[in-house]
Amino acid sequence: MYEKFGQDGRRVIGFAYKTFNASPETEFNADEENFPHEDLIFSGMCAIMDPPKEETAEALKLCKTAGIKVFMVTGDHDLTAAAIAKQIGLIDEGNDKGDDWEVIKGEDINDLSEKDWDRLIAKRALVFARTTPEQKLLIVEECQKRKQIIAMTGDGVNDAPALKRADIGIAMGSGSSVAKEASDIILMNDNFASIVDGIREGRMMFDNIKKLLGYTQIHSFPEIWPIIINFCFGFPVGITPLQILAIDLGTEIWPGMAMCKEPMEGGVMEREPRTRKKVLVSNTLLGYSYTYAGQIQSLGCFLSYCCIFWYHGINITDLWMSALESWQEGGKDFSSNGRTFSVEEQLYINRQACSAWQVGIVFGQFWHIYGVRTRRQSIFSHGVFRNMYSNFALIAELGMLIAMVYIPGLNTFLGGAPIPLQCWAVVAGFGIFLIVLNELRKYFCRKYPRNKIVRLFKW
User: Fold this and answer.
1) Strand partners, 47
2) pLDDT per residue over 386-398, tens digit each?
3) Phi, psi for 26 (deg, rounded to 5)
Protein backbone atom coordinates (compact mmCIF):
# COMPACT_ATOMS: atom_id res chain seq x y z
CA MET A 1 0.00 0.00 0.00
CA TYR A 2 2.84 2.37 0.87
CA GLU A 3 4.51 1.75 -2.50
CA LYS A 4 1.22 2.22 -4.32
CA PHE A 5 0.70 5.60 -2.67
CA GLY A 6 4.30 6.53 -3.56
CA GLN A 7 3.83 5.53 -7.20
CA ASP A 8 0.77 7.79 -7.29
CA GLY A 9 2.93 10.71 -6.19
CA ARG A 10 1.54 10.86 -2.65
CA ARG A 11 3.55 11.57 0.45
CA VAL A 12 2.84 9.03 3.22
CA ILE A 13 2.94 9.58 6.97
CA GLY A 14 2.76 6.52 9.24
CA PHE A 15 1.20 6.49 12.72
CA ALA A 16 2.27 4.24 15.62
CA TYR A 17 1.92 4.18 19.39
CA LYS A 18 3.40 2.56 22.48
CA THR A 19 2.17 2.35 26.03
CA PHE A 20 4.85 2.87 28.70
CA ASN A 21 5.14 4.14 32.24
CA ALA A 22 5.80 7.84 32.80
CA SER A 23 5.06 10.31 35.56
CA PRO A 24 2.21 12.77 34.99
CA GLU A 25 4.69 15.68 35.11
CA THR A 26 6.75 14.39 32.15
CA GLU A 27 6.96 16.78 29.19
CA PHE A 28 7.84 14.91 26.02
CA ASN A 29 10.27 16.68 23.72
CA ALA A 30 11.01 15.62 20.13
CA ASP A 31 14.41 17.31 20.19
CA GLU A 32 15.52 15.54 23.37
CA GLU A 33 13.74 12.36 22.25
CA ASN A 34 12.81 11.42 25.83
CA PHE A 35 10.50 8.61 24.74
CA PRO A 36 11.05 5.07 23.38
CA HIS A 37 11.44 4.35 19.64
CA GLU A 38 11.33 0.55 19.64
CA ASP A 39 8.45 -1.91 19.67
CA LEU A 40 5.91 0.62 18.44
CA ILE A 41 2.48 -0.62 17.35
CA PHE A 42 1.48 0.46 13.83
CA SER A 43 -1.96 2.06 13.77
CA GLY A 44 -2.31 3.38 10.21
CA MET A 45 -1.05 5.79 7.60
CA CYS A 46 -2.08 8.99 5.88
CA ALA A 47 -1.44 9.72 2.20
CA ILE A 48 -1.07 13.40 1.31
CA MET A 49 -1.53 14.66 -2.22
CA ASP A 50 0.32 17.90 -2.99
CA PRO A 51 -0.17 18.27 -6.75
CA PRO A 52 2.35 20.35 -8.68
CA LYS A 53 1.18 23.68 -10.09
CA GLU A 54 -0.30 23.56 -13.57
CA GLU A 55 2.32 25.93 -14.98
CA THR A 56 5.23 23.71 -13.91
CA ALA A 57 4.99 21.22 -16.79
CA GLU A 58 4.98 23.98 -19.40
CA ALA A 59 7.86 25.72 -17.64
CA LEU A 60 9.90 22.50 -17.76
CA LYS A 61 9.29 22.24 -21.50
CA LEU A 62 10.67 25.74 -21.90
CA CYS A 63 13.70 24.77 -19.81
CA LYS A 64 14.34 21.82 -22.10
CA THR A 65 14.19 23.92 -25.28
CA ALA A 66 16.36 26.58 -23.62
CA GLY A 67 19.05 24.03 -22.77
CA ILE A 68 18.51 24.38 -19.02
CA LYS A 69 18.95 21.22 -16.97
CA VAL A 70 16.54 20.66 -14.09
CA PHE A 71 17.53 18.41 -11.17
CA MET A 72 14.94 17.53 -8.52
CA VAL A 73 16.43 17.19 -5.03
CA THR A 74 13.93 16.10 -2.38
CA GLY A 75 13.61 14.33 0.92
CA ASP A 76 10.65 12.30 -0.37
CA HIS A 77 10.75 8.56 -1.04
CA ASP A 78 12.23 7.69 -4.43
CA LEU A 79 8.88 6.29 -5.64
CA THR A 80 7.08 9.51 -4.71
CA ALA A 81 9.81 11.68 -6.22
CA ALA A 82 9.82 9.71 -9.48
CA ALA A 83 6.03 9.83 -9.73
CA ILE A 84 5.94 13.61 -9.28
CA ALA A 85 8.79 14.01 -11.77
CA LYS A 86 6.76 12.04 -14.32
CA GLN A 87 3.65 14.10 -13.66
CA ILE A 88 5.46 17.34 -14.49
CA GLY A 89 7.28 15.87 -17.48
CA LEU A 90 10.75 15.99 -15.96
CA ILE A 91 11.32 12.28 -16.67
CA ASP A 92 9.59 9.80 -18.98
CA GLU A 93 6.52 7.79 -18.08
CA GLY A 94 6.78 4.04 -17.59
CA ASN A 95 10.54 3.81 -17.20
CA ASP A 96 12.82 3.45 -14.22
CA LYS A 97 15.78 4.95 -16.05
CA GLY A 98 16.25 6.88 -19.28
CA ASP A 99 19.11 7.80 -21.57
CA ASP A 100 19.04 11.42 -20.43
CA TRP A 101 17.61 11.10 -16.92
CA GLU A 102 17.97 9.00 -13.78
CA VAL A 103 16.61 8.63 -10.24
CA ILE A 104 19.24 8.43 -7.49
CA LYS A 105 18.53 7.44 -3.90
CA GLY A 106 20.12 9.38 -1.09
CA GLU A 107 21.71 6.24 0.33
CA ASP A 108 23.69 5.85 -2.92
CA ILE A 109 24.93 9.43 -3.26
CA ASN A 110 27.93 9.12 -0.95
CA ASP A 111 29.18 6.09 -2.89
CA LEU A 112 29.29 7.88 -6.26
CA SER A 113 32.72 8.15 -7.87
CA GLU A 114 34.00 11.05 -9.96
CA LYS A 115 33.16 9.10 -13.12
CA ASP A 116 29.66 8.48 -11.79
CA TRP A 117 29.19 12.20 -11.19
CA ASP A 118 30.51 12.98 -14.68
CA ARG A 119 28.02 10.56 -16.18
CA LEU A 120 25.07 11.81 -14.12
CA ILE A 121 25.62 15.54 -14.54
CA ALA A 122 25.89 15.09 -18.29
CA LYS A 123 22.23 13.98 -18.29
CA ARG A 124 19.35 16.36 -18.98
CA ALA A 125 17.43 15.60 -15.76
CA LEU A 126 18.11 13.92 -12.43
CA VAL A 127 15.90 13.08 -9.44
CA PHE A 128 17.66 12.81 -6.08
CA ALA A 129 15.41 11.24 -3.43
CA ARG A 130 15.74 10.85 0.35
CA THR A 131 18.55 13.40 0.45
CA THR A 132 20.05 14.99 3.54
CA PRO A 133 21.12 18.66 3.81
CA GLU A 134 24.75 17.57 3.46
CA GLN A 135 23.94 15.70 0.27
CA LYS A 136 22.14 18.72 -1.20
CA LEU A 137 25.29 20.75 -0.64
CA LEU A 138 27.38 17.97 -2.18
CA ILE A 139 25.20 17.93 -5.31
CA VAL A 140 25.67 21.69 -5.76
CA GLU A 141 29.43 21.41 -5.30
CA GLU A 142 29.78 18.49 -7.73
CA CYS A 143 27.86 20.42 -10.38
CA GLN A 144 30.02 23.50 -9.88
CA LYS A 145 33.18 21.40 -10.15
CA ARG A 146 32.00 20.56 -13.68
CA LYS A 147 31.62 24.22 -14.70
CA GLN A 148 27.84 24.26 -14.27
CA ILE A 149 26.09 27.50 -13.23
CA ILE A 150 23.70 26.48 -10.46
CA ALA A 151 20.42 28.01 -9.37
CA MET A 152 19.19 26.27 -6.21
CA THR A 153 15.69 26.52 -4.74
CA GLY A 154 14.76 25.77 -1.14
CA ASP A 155 12.53 26.79 1.73
CA GLY A 156 13.78 25.13 4.90
CA VAL A 157 16.56 25.74 7.39
CA ASN A 158 18.31 22.62 6.11
CA ASP A 159 18.46 24.10 2.60
CA ALA A 160 20.45 27.15 3.72
CA PRO A 161 23.99 25.73 3.13
CA ALA A 162 23.14 24.66 -0.43
CA LEU A 163 21.36 27.97 -1.13
CA LYS A 164 24.42 29.85 0.08
CA ARG A 165 26.82 27.75 -1.99
CA ALA A 166 24.85 27.91 -5.25
CA ASP A 167 25.60 30.60 -7.82
CA ILE A 168 21.99 31.76 -7.44
CA GLY A 169 20.10 30.87 -4.28
CA ILE A 170 16.32 31.11 -4.64
CA ALA A 171 14.24 30.89 -1.47
CA MET A 172 10.49 30.40 -1.43
CA GLY A 173 8.42 33.30 -0.14
CA SER A 174 6.73 30.96 2.34
CA GLY A 175 10.08 29.54 3.46
CA SER A 176 12.04 30.05 6.65
CA SER A 177 13.86 33.28 7.42
CA VAL A 178 17.17 31.39 7.48
CA ALA A 179 16.63 30.18 3.91
CA LYS A 180 15.70 33.69 2.79
CA GLU A 181 18.81 35.20 4.35
CA ALA A 182 21.02 32.59 2.67
CA SER A 183 19.51 33.16 -0.77
CA ASP A 184 19.99 35.78 -3.47
CA ILE A 185 16.38 35.85 -4.68
CA ILE A 186 13.08 35.34 -2.86
CA LEU A 187 10.31 33.82 -4.97
CA MET A 188 7.22 35.40 -3.49
CA ASN A 189 4.64 33.21 -5.25
CA ASP A 190 6.52 29.90 -4.70
CA ASN A 191 5.99 29.07 -8.37
CA PHE A 192 8.70 27.36 -10.41
CA ALA A 193 7.25 28.87 -13.59
CA SER A 194 8.20 32.31 -12.27
CA ILE A 195 11.86 31.28 -12.34
CA VAL A 196 11.54 30.44 -16.03
CA ASP A 197 9.79 33.76 -16.60
CA GLY A 198 12.74 35.43 -14.90
CA ILE A 199 15.18 33.60 -17.17
CA ARG A 200 13.21 34.75 -20.20
CA GLU A 201 13.23 38.35 -18.99
CA GLY A 202 16.93 38.10 -18.16
CA ARG A 203 17.77 36.86 -21.64
CA MET A 204 15.72 39.66 -23.17
CA MET A 205 17.48 42.26 -21.01
CA PHE A 206 20.90 40.84 -21.92
CA ASP A 207 19.92 40.95 -25.60
CA ASN A 208 18.67 44.53 -25.39
CA ILE A 209 21.78 45.78 -23.61
CA LYS A 210 23.93 44.05 -26.23
CA LYS A 211 21.86 45.61 -29.02
CA LEU A 212 22.19 49.00 -27.34
CA LEU A 213 25.98 48.63 -27.23
CA GLY A 214 26.04 47.53 -30.86
CA TYR A 215 23.97 50.56 -31.79
CA THR A 216 25.83 53.22 -29.81
CA GLN A 217 29.42 52.03 -30.27
CA ILE A 218 29.27 52.11 -34.07
CA HIS A 219 29.34 55.91 -34.34
CA SER A 220 32.62 56.22 -32.42
CA PHE A 221 34.80 55.75 -35.50
CA PRO A 222 32.78 58.15 -37.68
CA GLU A 223 33.44 60.78 -35.00
CA ILE A 224 37.18 60.03 -35.00
CA TRP A 225 37.78 59.88 -38.76
CA PRO A 226 37.25 63.64 -39.39
CA ILE A 227 40.04 64.36 -36.93
CA ILE A 228 42.30 61.79 -38.59
CA ILE A 229 41.81 63.10 -42.14
CA ASN A 230 42.27 66.67 -40.94
CA PHE A 231 45.41 65.95 -38.94
CA CYS A 232 47.06 63.41 -41.27
CA PHE A 233 45.91 64.54 -44.73
CA GLY A 234 45.22 68.23 -44.23
CA PHE A 235 41.55 68.04 -45.28
CA PRO A 236 39.13 70.70 -43.97
CA VAL A 237 37.60 69.95 -40.57
CA GLY A 238 34.80 67.38 -40.96
CA ILE A 239 32.84 67.91 -37.75
CA THR A 240 32.85 70.42 -34.90
CA PRO A 241 33.04 69.65 -31.16
CA LEU A 242 29.54 71.09 -30.66
CA GLN A 243 28.15 68.79 -33.35
CA ILE A 244 29.72 65.79 -31.61
CA LEU A 245 28.14 66.86 -28.32
CA ALA A 246 24.80 67.35 -30.07
CA ILE A 247 25.03 63.78 -31.37
CA ASP A 248 26.19 62.09 -28.18
CA LEU A 249 24.01 64.06 -25.77
CA GLY A 250 21.09 64.81 -28.06
CA THR A 251 20.10 62.77 -31.08
CA GLU A 252 21.53 59.45 -29.87
CA ILE A 253 19.84 59.53 -26.47
CA TRP A 254 16.29 58.80 -27.64
CA PRO A 255 16.90 55.75 -29.86
CA GLY A 256 19.22 54.33 -27.21
CA MET A 257 16.53 54.61 -24.54
CA ALA A 258 13.98 53.08 -26.91
CA MET A 259 16.27 50.10 -27.48
CA CYS A 260 15.81 49.12 -23.83
CA LYS A 261 12.08 48.74 -24.55
CA GLU A 262 12.57 46.44 -27.52
CA PRO A 263 10.17 43.43 -27.37
CA MET A 264 11.76 40.00 -27.08
CA GLU A 265 12.66 38.49 -30.42
CA GLY A 266 11.67 34.95 -31.35
CA GLY A 267 13.92 32.04 -30.44
CA VAL A 268 15.39 33.57 -27.29
CA MET A 269 14.27 30.57 -25.22
CA GLU A 270 15.64 28.15 -27.80
CA ARG A 271 19.26 29.24 -27.41
CA GLU A 272 21.79 27.39 -25.31
CA PRO A 273 22.64 28.99 -21.95
CA ARG A 274 25.62 31.34 -21.97
CA THR A 275 28.85 30.16 -20.41
CA ARG A 276 30.86 32.29 -18.01
CA LYS A 277 33.21 33.16 -20.89
CA LYS A 278 30.43 34.83 -22.89
CA VAL A 279 30.66 38.41 -21.70
CA LEU A 280 28.39 41.32 -22.54
CA VAL A 281 30.99 43.22 -24.57
CA SER A 282 32.41 40.37 -26.63
CA ASN A 283 35.21 40.47 -29.20
CA THR A 284 32.69 39.85 -31.96
CA LEU A 285 30.59 42.81 -30.80
CA LEU A 286 33.65 45.05 -30.74
CA GLY A 287 34.59 43.73 -34.16
CA TYR A 288 31.14 44.58 -35.48
CA SER A 289 31.16 48.08 -34.03
CA TYR A 290 34.72 49.09 -34.82
CA THR A 291 35.56 47.20 -38.01
CA TYR A 292 33.09 46.47 -40.76
CA ALA A 293 29.89 48.21 -39.55
CA GLY A 294 31.72 51.19 -38.08
CA GLN A 295 33.84 51.61 -41.19
CA ILE A 296 30.84 51.31 -43.52
CA GLN A 297 29.15 54.15 -41.68
CA SER A 298 32.42 56.12 -41.72
CA LEU A 299 32.61 55.68 -45.50
CA GLY A 300 29.04 56.95 -45.84
CA CYS A 301 29.95 60.00 -43.77
CA PHE A 302 33.05 60.66 -45.88
CA LEU A 303 31.16 60.43 -49.17
CA SER A 304 28.45 62.74 -47.80
CA TYR A 305 31.26 65.13 -46.82
CA CYS A 306 32.77 64.83 -50.30
CA CYS A 307 29.39 65.55 -51.92
CA ILE A 308 29.58 69.12 -50.61
CA PHE A 309 32.88 69.78 -52.37
CA TRP A 310 31.72 68.09 -55.56
CA TYR A 311 28.55 70.17 -55.38
CA HIS A 312 30.72 73.31 -55.47
CA GLY A 313 32.97 71.96 -58.23
CA ILE A 314 35.96 71.17 -56.00
CA ASN A 315 38.17 68.16 -56.68
CA ILE A 316 38.76 66.03 -53.59
CA THR A 317 42.43 65.62 -54.53
CA ASP A 318 42.85 69.40 -54.34
CA LEU A 319 41.93 69.26 -50.64
CA TRP A 320 45.17 67.43 -49.82
CA MET A 321 46.99 69.50 -47.16
CA SER A 322 44.86 72.51 -48.07
CA ALA A 323 43.77 73.05 -44.46
CA LEU A 324 47.29 74.16 -43.57
CA GLU A 325 46.78 77.51 -45.32
CA SER A 326 43.09 77.67 -46.26
CA TRP A 327 39.65 76.81 -44.79
CA GLN A 328 40.24 79.00 -41.73
CA GLU A 329 39.84 82.59 -40.57
CA GLY A 330 42.60 84.71 -42.08
CA GLY A 331 43.63 81.92 -44.45
CA LYS A 332 44.51 82.08 -48.12
CA ASP A 333 42.19 81.79 -51.09
CA PHE A 334 41.64 78.26 -52.38
CA SER A 335 41.52 77.25 -56.04
CA SER A 336 40.16 74.14 -57.76
CA ASN A 337 39.07 73.47 -61.36
CA GLY A 338 40.04 76.99 -62.36
CA ARG A 339 37.85 78.66 -59.74
CA THR A 340 39.08 80.59 -56.73
CA PHE A 341 37.16 80.54 -53.46
CA SER A 342 37.42 83.40 -51.00
CA VAL A 343 37.85 82.85 -47.29
CA GLU A 344 34.15 83.57 -46.69
CA GLU A 345 33.14 81.01 -49.32
CA GLN A 346 35.55 78.45 -47.89
CA LEU A 347 34.18 78.85 -44.38
CA TYR A 348 30.60 78.45 -45.60
CA ILE A 349 31.48 75.35 -47.66
CA ASN A 350 33.36 73.93 -44.68
CA ARG A 351 30.33 74.47 -42.44
CA GLN A 352 28.23 72.63 -45.02
CA ALA A 353 30.76 69.80 -45.03
CA CYS A 354 30.54 69.58 -41.23
CA SER A 355 26.75 69.35 -41.45
CA ALA A 356 27.06 66.70 -44.15
CA TRP A 357 29.27 64.61 -41.85
CA GLN A 358 26.84 65.13 -38.98
CA VAL A 359 24.01 63.94 -41.22
CA GLY A 360 26.16 60.95 -42.16
CA ILE A 361 26.37 59.89 -38.50
CA VAL A 362 22.85 60.68 -37.30
CA PHE A 363 20.91 59.72 -40.43
CA GLY A 364 23.14 56.65 -40.73
CA GLN A 365 22.13 55.67 -37.19
CA PHE A 366 18.49 56.28 -38.17
CA TRP A 367 18.83 53.36 -40.61
CA HIS A 368 21.28 51.34 -38.54
CA ILE A 369 18.86 50.82 -35.65
CA TYR A 370 16.70 48.61 -37.88
CA GLY A 371 19.68 46.31 -38.35
CA VAL A 372 20.45 45.85 -34.64
CA ARG A 373 16.98 45.69 -33.09
CA THR A 374 17.31 41.90 -33.39
CA ARG A 375 20.35 39.67 -32.93
CA ARG A 376 19.13 36.54 -34.74
CA GLN A 377 15.60 37.07 -36.04
CA SER A 378 14.97 39.09 -39.19
CA ILE A 379 13.70 42.58 -38.44
CA PHE A 380 10.94 42.01 -40.99
CA SER A 381 9.52 38.97 -39.17
CA HIS A 382 10.13 40.63 -35.79
CA GLY A 383 8.19 43.72 -36.86
CA VAL A 384 9.78 46.85 -38.35
CA PHE A 385 7.47 49.21 -36.46
CA ARG A 386 6.71 46.92 -33.52
CA ASN A 387 8.56 49.04 -30.96
CA MET A 388 6.48 52.20 -30.59
CA TYR A 389 9.14 53.78 -28.39
CA SER A 390 11.64 53.35 -31.20
CA ASN A 391 9.24 54.84 -33.75
CA PHE A 392 8.76 58.01 -31.71
CA ALA A 393 12.48 58.17 -30.86
CA LEU A 394 13.48 58.05 -34.53
CA ILE A 395 10.98 60.77 -35.40
CA ALA A 396 12.46 62.90 -32.61
CA GLU A 397 16.01 62.13 -33.75
CA LEU A 398 15.26 63.05 -37.36
CA GLY A 399 13.44 66.22 -36.29
CA MET A 400 16.38 67.30 -34.15
CA LEU A 401 18.82 66.64 -36.99
CA ILE A 402 16.79 68.65 -39.51
CA ALA A 403 16.59 71.51 -37.02
CA MET A 404 20.35 71.44 -36.43
CA VAL A 405 21.09 71.54 -40.16
CA TYR A 406 18.46 73.93 -41.52
CA ILE A 407 17.34 76.34 -38.78
CA PRO A 408 19.34 79.58 -39.13
CA GLY A 409 21.25 80.52 -36.02
CA LEU A 410 21.16 77.00 -34.59
CA ASN A 411 23.19 75.57 -37.46
CA THR A 412 25.64 78.48 -37.25
CA PHE A 413 26.02 77.98 -33.51
CA LEU A 414 26.89 74.31 -34.05
CA GLY A 415 29.29 75.16 -36.88
CA GLY A 416 27.13 73.92 -39.74
CA ALA A 417 25.06 75.13 -42.68
CA PRO A 418 22.21 73.81 -44.87
CA ILE A 419 23.19 71.00 -47.24
CA PRO A 420 21.75 69.71 -50.54
CA LEU A 421 19.57 66.58 -50.68
CA GLN A 422 22.29 64.59 -52.44
CA CYS A 423 24.08 64.17 -49.11
CA TRP A 424 20.98 62.65 -47.53
CA ALA A 425 20.59 60.24 -50.45
CA VAL A 426 24.19 59.03 -50.13
CA VAL A 427 23.77 58.35 -46.41
CA ALA A 428 20.43 56.59 -46.97
CA GLY A 429 22.10 54.30 -49.51
CA PHE A 430 24.79 53.27 -47.02
CA GLY A 431 22.18 52.88 -44.27
CA ILE A 432 20.08 50.52 -46.37
CA PHE A 433 23.23 48.61 -47.35
CA LEU A 434 24.03 48.13 -43.65
CA ILE A 435 20.50 46.80 -43.00
CA VAL A 436 20.93 44.28 -45.85
CA LEU A 437 24.34 43.28 -44.48
CA ASN A 438 22.87 42.72 -41.01
CA GLU A 439 19.99 40.68 -42.44
CA LEU A 440 22.49 38.44 -44.25
CA ARG A 441 24.57 38.12 -41.07
CA LYS A 442 21.50 37.08 -39.05
CA TYR A 443 20.40 34.65 -41.75
CA PHE A 444 23.73 32.82 -41.68
CA CYS A 445 23.72 32.88 -37.85
CA ARG A 446 20.35 31.10 -37.90
CA LYS A 447 21.23 28.73 -40.73
CA TYR A 448 24.79 27.80 -39.74
CA PRO A 449 25.08 28.64 -36.02
CA ARG A 450 28.14 26.44 -35.42
CA ASN A 451 30.13 27.39 -38.51
CA LYS A 452 33.50 28.83 -37.45
CA ILE A 453 33.41 31.67 -39.95
CA VAL A 454 29.80 32.58 -39.13
CA ARG A 455 30.61 32.66 -35.41
CA LEU A 456 33.11 35.46 -36.06
CA PHE A 457 30.17 37.68 -37.01
CA LYS A 458 27.74 36.45 -34.31
CA TRP A 459 27.51 38.81 -31.36
Assistant:
1) 12
2) 999 999 999 999 9
3) -65, 130
- Whether the Cβ atoms of residue 57 and residue 88 lie closer than 8 Å to each other: yes
Is the pLDDT at 371 greater than 90? The verdict is yes
Cα–Cα separations (whole angstroms), residue 30 to 22, 265, 397: 16, 56, 71
* CA 120 – CA 138 distance, rounded (Å): 14
Same domain for 313 and 432, yes or no, is yes
Asked whether residue 218 falls in the same domain as residue 128, the answer is no
Say what the pTM is.
0.83
- Tell me if 289 sits within 8 A of 219, measured CB to CB: no
Q: Same domain for 221 and 141?
A: no
pLDDT tens-digit map of 23-60 = 888 888 877 777 888 888 988 888 887 778 888 889 99
Given 148, 176, 209, which residue is the final one in a domain?
A: 148
User: Domain range for residue 399?
Assistant: 201-455
| Residue 414 banded pLDDT, cuts 50, 70, 90 | very high
Pick from 214, 215, 331: nearest CA to 282? 214
Task: Report how many domains make up the chain.
Answer: 2
Q: Are 300 and 364 in contact (CB under 8 A)?
A: yes
Cα gap 431→425, rounded to integer Å? 10
**Please, what's the largest Cα pairwise distance for the chain?**
124
Closest CA relative to residue 203, chosen from 73, 68, 87, 308: 68
CATH assignment of the domain containing 116: 3.40.50.1000
| pLDDT tens digits for range 93-133 | 755 566 788 999 999 999 999 999 999 999 989 999 999 99
| 87 closest CA partner among 205, 168, 6 | 6
